[in-house]
Amino acid sequence: MLLMRPYKHPPASDFVLERVLYALSDSIRLGIVRHLAQHGPATCGELDGGRPKSTVSHHFKVLREAGLVLTESTGTTHMNTLRRAELDARFPGLLAALLQPEPAAA
Amino acid sequence: MLLMRPYKHPPASDFVLERVLYALSDSIRLGIVRHLAQHGPATCGELDGGRPKSTVSHHFKVLREAGLVLTESTGTTHMNTLRRAELDARFPGLLAALLQPEPAAA
Q1: What distance in Å separates the CA atoms of residue A64 and residue B85, rounded to the nearest whole number?
Q2: Contact call for A90 and B100, based on CB within 8 A
Q3: Is B92 on the interface with A (CB under 8 A)?
Q4: Measured between CB atoms, which of A21, A25, A106 is closest to B12?
Q5: Using CA atoms in the order B61, B57, B84, B103, what is the torsion angle rounded to 10 degrees?
Q6: Is A75 exposed, middle or buried (0-12, 13-18, 19+ CB in 10 A)?
């Protein structure tokens, strides 16, 4: 039997701004965070945009390790949630700024 | 005679959020941006923290290419300015969120 280990998530006290910014500096990861913010928790399958599983797994790992996303497994389903309250407490205004639509370029 | 070419700076219409976030995902670069925001324009020498010139040059290049910093040369002096108004217009609230002191970790 394959033993499933739970995913590791840093406590909010260990969040590092630079790591959060790095996690969000990729279009796919930024898109995942925006999707979770708008639509609530979602499975990896709902968020993969048809990309290869290995690619998407890597992106979720980066998001988890930065503290942006909580992944919980139920059987083979992995449900992802944005850690919004904790992020807002540590970095007030940051997610709000990132999640608003960008003004049209001048 | 060595011909000095002016630094390249993207117009605000070409700013890309992911690139801005990447530029800010490094402690040295984030520190430079915070210093410029608090104290106004500064030379590279005032911002290098005693680091090797090649290291600092690389960081300024990343900051310039993302649109965060404007570097203007007068003779051998390179003066750096945060492109705050343009950044605020393109990404409202982002710099404000990044420049405030971080709340103490819980």
Answers
A1: 33
A2: no
A3: yes
A4: A106
A5: 110
A6: exposed
Cα(A9)–Cα(B3) distance, integer angstroms = 52
Do the Cβ atoms of B72 and B64 come closer than 8 Å? no
Per residue in A6-58, pLDDT (tens digit) is 788 999 999 999 999 999 999 999 999 999 999 999 998 888 888 888 888 99
Count of all residues that appear for chain A in the document: 106
Amino acid at A57: S
Q: Residues A98, A30: contact at Cβ < 8 Å?
A: yes
* Total residue count of chain B as it appears in this document: 106
CA distance B67 to B13: 10
Say how far apart CA A60 and CA A66 lie, in whole Å.
Answer: 10
Taking 50 as the threshold, does the pLDDT of residue A62 lie above it?
yes
pTM listed for this prediction? 0.90
